[in-house]
């Protein structure tokens, strides 16, 4: 058997005419079209000298052609390396010189700047624009659609995705054909995907969520997806009338809740709403359920591991929890220092093991060793708990833990209390350098529209609710929290902004 992810997806395709992707400009791409388009691009890549295990780096706007480039790269046994479209030339310089691709594909408008960087590592450059224009498309129009998928073993590399790098330099997570295929197949079963499903796909495709979870799961299920260039809450609500599943980051849900068009009727055709990549507030979960009758299914994953846990399809979807470990995945909570497993309910480091977990960091064997335990568990860097029913709850990244006067403060514990106060929309709790305490607990709060809560009212309300050492030293108000495109609050930016808050 050929373990190449492309072969796993497309070999023995029963019905080439089946719809795979719809686009907003009326495009309808069948599974057979995807195969032949991937065949043409595969022939172009090989003609450009891309060999097995070579990296193909792509900084391209979301489009069917960009997805085809991913499929074609995997098909020829090369390694796909998607890059966030927001990265500047300065950032691209790091990724390209680190990964040493043999080909870089970019937007025609960026060609000149990227060509100068690509030249440093001897990489060729092709262009691909948002509407499919560019040299790659021109070349593939003239190429043959047939291509024999290159044989690969399950443990061979299919992709490298760089981590978002909020603490130091980004690292390239090496993902194998089996990492990707096994996780997608598990999710198809676990989330009850079938060929009747229509997924609203409004996520970017340079990140694990939109590229692997959304696209691979849809393709394995022989379902179809509607490609939207980006989050457009009103458009998504309109599409719900003929779709069945939405995958989003929490921002999708909070933004749609602002629309009066979000009703039980509007969501009546949908069977599943999934959220991940950042914590979904328990309040958002409840509000969504009250408005639509649907309990959002929250799951937890990361670039290095694909998906680890998920609330169940049938059974309790617990607000504030990311559910039990997926079938085939083991999750445990350990003491971060000793690595000893902790009793259920205790807070510690979340570790995972399974066929979903990546092979290591690109060209960083020491870093890889440091992040794995001897028994094969990967140290996620997330702190959390597992309850008696196996449900995992995340309390935040270990690096976001606040240590004040020698005490550990888990930001989420304080954030949950603040978020529940009248007039508060959301909050982020961070540690800021403090001469006496090491770090001072600091709350950054977003008020609800028109609310007038103040530092004094927040502190007054917390008094007696949480231990004294967890009390914020200061409460600062902002209009909104800084978030990246995947909806994650960028606490590193907040720490920078308030770095001198307690300076004398
Ligand atoms: P990334 O590698 O960009 O996908 O980021 C992975 C990180 O996002 C995880 O290590 C978690 O800290 C966070 N994350 C992902 N899903 C969730 C979730 N459902 N709830 C809370 N944090 C999450």
UniProtKB/TrEMBL annotation:
One of its GO terms (molecular function) is medium-chain fatty acid-CoA ligase activity. It comes from the Bacteria. NCBIfam families: PRK07514.1 (NF005702). It comes from Rhodopseudomonas palustris (strain BisB18). Residues 16-362 form the AMP-dependent synthetase/ligase domain. Belongs to the ATP-dependent AMP-binding enzyme family. Residues 413-488 form the AMP-binding enzyme C-terminal domain. The keyword Ligase applies. PANTHER family: ACYL-COA SYNTHETASE, ACYL-COA SYNTHETASE FAMILY MEMBER 3. CDD domains: MCS (cd05941). PROSITE patterns: AMP_BINDING (PS00455). InterPro entries: AMP-bd_C, AMP-bd_C_sf, AMP-binding_CS, AMP-dep_synth/lig_dom, ANL_N_sf. This is AMP-dependent synthetase and ligase. One of its GO terms (biological process) is fatty acid metabolic process. Pfam families: AMP-binding, AMP-binding_C. Keywords: Ligase.
């Amino acid at each position: 058997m050929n373990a190449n992810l492309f072969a796993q997806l497309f070999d023995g395709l029963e019905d080439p005419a089946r719809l795979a992707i719809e686009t907003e400009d009326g495009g309808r791409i069948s599974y057979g079209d995807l195969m032949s388009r991937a065949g043409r691009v595969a022939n172009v890549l090989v003609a450009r000298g891309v060999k097995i295990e070579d990296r193909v780096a792509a900084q391209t706007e979301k489009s069917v052609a960009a997805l085809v480039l991913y499929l074609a790269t995997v098909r020829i046994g090369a390694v796909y390396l998607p890059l966030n479209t927001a990265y500047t030339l300065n950032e691209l310089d790091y990724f390209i010189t680190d990964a040493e691709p043999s080909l870089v594909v970019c937007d025609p408008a960026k060609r000149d700047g990227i060509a100068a960087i690509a030249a440093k590592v001897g990489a060729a450059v092709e262009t691909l624009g948002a509407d499919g224009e560019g040299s790659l498309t021109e070349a593939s129009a003239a190429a043959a659609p047939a291509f024999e998928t290159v044989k690969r073993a399950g443990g061979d590399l299919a992709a490298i995705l760089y981590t978002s790098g909020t603490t130091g330099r980004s690292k390239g997570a090496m993902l194998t054909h089996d990492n990707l295929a096994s996780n997608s197949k598990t999710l198809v079963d676990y989330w009850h995907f079938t060929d009747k499903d229509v997924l609203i796909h409004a996520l970017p495709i340079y990140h694990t969520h939109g590229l692997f979870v959304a696209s691979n799961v849809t393709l394995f299920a022989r379902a179809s997806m509607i490609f939207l260039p980006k989050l457009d809450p009103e458009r998504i609500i309109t599409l719900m009338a003929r779709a069945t599943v939405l995958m989003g980051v929490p921002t999708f849900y909070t933004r749609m809740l602002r629309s009066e068009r979000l009703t039980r009727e509007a969501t009546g055709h949908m069977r599943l709403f999934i959220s991940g990549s950042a914590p979904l507030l328990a309040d958002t979960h409840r509000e969504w359920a009250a408005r639509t009758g649907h309990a959002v299914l929250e799951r937890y994953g990361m670039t290095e591991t694909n998906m680890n846990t998920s609330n169940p399809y049938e059974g309790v979807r617990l607000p504030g929890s990311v559910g039990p470990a997926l079938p085939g995945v083991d999750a445990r909570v350990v003491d971060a220092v000793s690595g000893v497993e902790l009793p259920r309910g205790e807070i510690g480091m979340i570790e995972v093991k399974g066929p979903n977990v990546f092979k290591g960091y690109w060209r960083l064997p020491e870093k890889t060793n440091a992040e794995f335990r001897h028994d094969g568990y990967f140290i996620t860097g997330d702190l959390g708990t597992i309850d008696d029913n196996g449900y995992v709850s995340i309390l935040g990244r270990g690096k976001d833990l606040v240590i004040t006067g020698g005490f550990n403060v888990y930001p989420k514990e304080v954030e949950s209390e603040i978020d529940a106060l009248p007039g508060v929309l959301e909050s982020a709790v961070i540690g800021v350098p403090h001469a006496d305490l090491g770090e001072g607990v600091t709350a950054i709060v977003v008020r609800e529209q028109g609310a007038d809560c103040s530092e004094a009212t927040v502190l007054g309300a917390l008094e007696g609710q949480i231990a004294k050492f967890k009390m914020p030293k200061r409460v600062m108000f902002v209009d909104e929290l800084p978030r990246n495109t995947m909806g994650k609050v960028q606490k590193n930016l907040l720490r920078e902004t308030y770095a001198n808050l307690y300076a004398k």
